[in-house]
Amino acid sequence: MVGGGNDAFIGGVHRIAARIDDRYELVAGALSSTPEKSAASAKALGIPRSYASFAEMAEAEAAREDGIEAVSIVTPNHVHAAAAKAFLARGIHVICDKPLTSTMDDAEALEKAVAESDALFVLTHNYTGYPMIRQARAMIQAGDLGEIRIVQAEYPQDWLTSPMETEGLKQAEWRTDPKRSGAGGCVGDIGTHAHNLACFVTGLTVEKLAADLQAFGTGRTLDDNAHVMLRFVGGARGMLWSSQVAPGNENALKLRVYGDKGGLEWRQEDPNYLWFTPHGEPKRLITRGGSGANDAASAVSRIPSGHPEGYLEGFATIYNEAADAIRAVQNGADRAQAMGVLPGIVEGMSGMSFINACVSSSSADAIWVNL
Amino acid sequence: MVGGGNDAFIGGVHRIAARIDDRYELVAGALSSTPEKSAASAKALGIPRSYASFAEMAEAEAAREDGIEAVSIVTPNHVHAAAAKAFLARGIHVICDKPLTSTMDDAEALEKAVAESDALFVLTHNYTGYPMIRQARAMIQAGDLGEIRIVQAEYPQDWLTSPMETEGLKQAEWRTDPKRSGAGGCVGDIGTHAHNLACFVTGLTVEKLAADLQAFGTGRTLDDNAHVMLRFVGGARGMLWSSQVAPGNENALKLRVYGDKGGLEWRQEDPNYLWFTPHGEPKRLITRGGSGANDAASAVSRIPSGHPEGYLEGFATIYNEAADAIRAVQNGADRAQAMGVLPGIVEGMSGMSFINACVSSSSADAIWVNL
Amino acid sequence: MVGGGNDAFIGGVHRIAARIDDRYELVAGALSSTPEKSAASAKALGIPRSYASFAEMAEAEAAREDGIEAVSIVTPNHVHAAAAKAFLARGIHVICDKPLTSTMDDAEALEKAVAESDALFVLTHNYTGYPMIRQARAMIQAGDLGEIRIVQAEYPQDWLTSPMETEGLKQAEWRTDPKRSGAGGCVGDIGTHAHNLACFVTGLTVEKLAADLQAFGTGRTLDDNAHVMLRFVGGARGMLWSSQVAPGNENALKLRVYGDKGGLEWRQEDPNYLWFTPHGEPKRLITRGGSGANDAASAVSRIPSGHPEGYLEGFATIYNEAADAIRAVQNGADRAQAMGVLPGIVEGMSGMSFINACVSSSSADAIWVNL
Amino acid sequence: MVGGGNDAFIGGVHRIAARIDDRYELVAGALSSTPEKSAASAKALGIPRSYASFAEMAEAEAAREDGIEAVSIVTPNHVHAAAAKAFLARGIHVICDKPLTSTMDDAEALEKAVAESDALFVLTHNYTGYPMIRQARAMIQAGDLGEIRIVQAEYPQDWLTSPMETEGLKQAEWRTDPKRSGAGGCVGDIGTHAHNLACFVTGLTVEKLAADLQAFGTGRTLDDNAHVMLRFVGGARGMLWSSQVAPGNENALKLRVYGDKGGLEWRQEDPNYLWFTPHGEPKRLITRGGSGANDAASAVSRIPSGHPEGYLEGFATIYNEAADAIRAVQNGADRAQAMGVLPGIVEGMSGMSFINACVSSSSADAIWVNL
């Protein structure tokens, strides 16, 4: 693992996610920005091998016979590319937090590195691991909604309503800093999740968008609220709202999709429920593990219905499928095929395009920008 | 009453609304497009005086000593202006269904007629009559949300998902016909409700908007889905979605408002609940009639909490307050003051501007258009 | 109208309910306990004829050619029987608030009076007027749930959590006074509603019950919380909870019914929704006016789905059907047939039996008592 | 681990729960009823040491220097006692699935074995591990609800609505078999969870109960539905409903507690939410990790609010705290103190008493039975 030391949030999530299905053992890390902090975190977590930097780690692990097979990169965004390239170049599989990178240049360099490596690159768009999201995707593929017309995606939070970044909250500091986050603030941090999920579930691609980004927080340069209108290839239309200044919203990621035959609604905070309305019939509540769950949902479900699975289990599914994919590649499978529905470099580049298009559009007063 | 014959939906609603608080007696009508149908409807409803047309009715009632004091106009949109002018010119108060008219020319003529008349003109933006909407407005006025930053308004329906207008449904026919509805389809029929409610609750005015309207239904010329980005005077931003092709939505009007001190959420389908989150505290459920209800809510509430009031009661509040306003004016009060929070010509013109701006913006590929 | 003067709650509800469907004109009343108060209330409400007492009213109205056809009795419970008998004896139809009376003796006398009169006796178990309750009843009759096994009924409130009756609240005073309420407190006031609704919807009859009543409020002699186990004729079992001391519950009447083929759930506070689960299939949300609504629901529904009807509309349905029944009887129909599904003396006696059985069982330490 | 072979459900849950917080390594097992099956399951799970029986395992592991420190027992109920005694007798800590045993004799023998051992005995009443349950318990201890008056506990399921035990479902077979389950069916399997949770959260003890158990499923001898009235030491009253034949309920465990100062409501299927109503104020939604979460909740919470934790995380908390307790005891701490809020033999005996009292009461026509 690179990043994820004591102060970090997402590192701990990755570690639990990796353990749940018992497919990984964490044996090495460069967990912090200094050797001392890294070593302290590694010791606290019981990780045998601690390195001073990701570069040292990549080199040393590649040289060991029992070196790591895969690495998790859970640093702030601006470190993703360099770290990932170091491991990919040595054939070590990479599981990387999103968004892909902080700049388009980095993203393109990383894209190239992925293309040149034999190793897999998995991007943890973890919400795609929720069983009811898999269910929704499969239902749309099966035509249950007919032709898709409308996509409403939103991801509001409220934690930046007041200027937390000036009050010593490390999470807020780097997320509001363009150097570490990139050109998008809220739109990069969570708007990309909403965009990714909308595309994953519907199978559609955004053709162009018009965005109106705002920075409501005093002294903030990056957006903390984003309004986006979407036009998808093929004619569907959508709206996307992401916000970090909407009091009363914790992680209220929500997706609604409507076609000429039916509609679907899903909320991340109540992830075991999927609402399906075949047009002209009563709304139905499909539950994870329940009688309406399809094969796609059941395949990534661990326990019976009514016993809620949550965020960590959805995240674990990405890790579990990454393990499958790694084994498959090790056994000679084609990389693309081995990835299956796992998000990777393509989704990462798509997210970068989304961020860039939002920022470009917004600076040109919300004109339509192609992705 | 003008319009509201046997086939109509909204006429019956107006009649019940007028009865609930026992302030009106319905004694005359021109209920349909032909004298025979009008007479038949009047007879069925036990209305003593039936007229062949609104013109005849206005003239005859104005001439009677016991003539009507006020008239309800519940026709399709394109008739509103002419009918209203006929009564206003004779000093008869008008309660008119929304939107104001089908064309801007008609709207301006009507605006002039209202200005020249001593009678009141009330527009039934009925959702403003819900107690929890009054509560929300008063809370925002009192500063409970701080400075407003974000407004999310939506009004999705699903009844036009399939082409009902080609299957003999009268309601669908005139609503999808530009001659009778005006330039806006869905955006005029229900988008105006969302726009009106957002402004009513926040006290804000839309400065400009960018709209992307679609007509998904085969052969439809008017929009049946509308995506709109909003910029309010003073800096708040918003999004508005209205749709008639979103399966699983009946009348899912929803308003969410966020300021730097808190957030509010309200859904028309569950109108007795208002969700309030003071930033940094748990969400609270304020109920109509409950311990958190303020004076503004209590003033328009009839029964105790936990016994739901609904759409008809909210509508009745408009009628009840219109009766108050009429009595006040009859007793010499100033017209504007008598109107209080009642929606009238100002709100009607604002709605027309909203429709026109949406249509203009959309035809210019969603550029920003001032209201 | 008898009772329902200025201080009362339920009188106003009856008056609105009677107006909604335009079937009644309120022309006479004995609204309060003194002639002066009665006259003042009548004047305030615009009721032409005010009487000093129900006895005087019954006599005088019966003597008038244009005397009332029907009377609403909305007094505290202990007045119901005497008032109802006075009108029934003179052939005037009675619409009476529930529960039937305050004592079994009164109830039996009233039962006799109903039997001897040609007039109708309607008891306003108003919750039976909700469209989704009609829907549920029809679905169970049609076998959609299979054989009924379990009935869970509850009606918790919280308004007597603190001793309101000692703080001058008139509503609380008479409800906690055995002389005016009868032997049951909470169980009579609202437990009867839950019992009535359970029987109405399932078509079942309670065979025996075991009750544990409590009076938690200091100095209270009547129960303010009731736990009841039910055995229905035919083998179904149930539980009933009613409470007036459960903080957070306004009028949280809820009914759940389970058979060997499916289950139904309904909540009075969200009355436009009915949840139906055919065993082994996803839960469905049936809405008033929506695509899943059956004829029984549609027959008592006024406006489209998504525009909520509430408590007053459900109450109005009882008044509307009472008007139908009165007209039918006036036209020679059989009384029982004319009543249709309207609650009357049978339901009133059943409610009295329920109260008495609860009180008897509880005083004998919750032994089973036959109804 | 004892039990938990390939066919079992709860074994897998225990294994994931043990991994989540990285406190356990699974190194030995007697996973099935035959040596062959056990070995096959152990191999599939990558467990190094497989034994033919729990007896063999206890003996062998106790003899090893690197033998197991603790064992999980996840067999059907009738095996719990014998297996637990074998390990306790050798000083190996036991984590045992609930209910305690299938007979009172076994329970008492086990109680004795626990008393005589130095090892810990933890019973996985896993629902006590949910953060919002810890929050509720702490709030009640702090007096936020005032004096507790009413406890409503329920745990309905629907999976035995049809006779699954005759259709080859192993889970259903042993649960409906008195020899393996004990005297209680549904009341033992899930009623005990509701009972345990009610006591855990309120801190109250049931003094006596009256129960009406039913077996609705054809040919079923054990109850599949249970109605229970409760009287707590100190005067609070309650009701408990557990069912396995209520269509539309998956694992709808729900607890509601009301005192003279406020009320709390919690649902297992939406475990991150706790509803709190201080009497006379609006209802509040307290969320896991949100601004209203107290220390007791935060102590067992892993990720931020709005990212749902679920059933497995609640279960993992029991395992995590068991690891803490084991380390504490190994470091010389007092056993009782080390257990903290962990459920153990006391809770197990209490559950057995509850089952026995329910069965006794019901066979005597629901008379009150002391616990």
Automatic annotation (TrEMBL), chains A, B, C, D:
Ranges for domain Gfo/Idh/MocA-like oxidoreductase N-terminal: 10-122
Pfam families documented for this protein: GFO_IDH_MocA, GFO_IDH_MocA_C3
Leader sequence segment: none
UniProt protein name: Gfo/Idh/MocA family oxidoreductase
Residues of the GFO/IDH/MocA-like oxidoreductase domain: 133-265
Domain of life: Bacteria
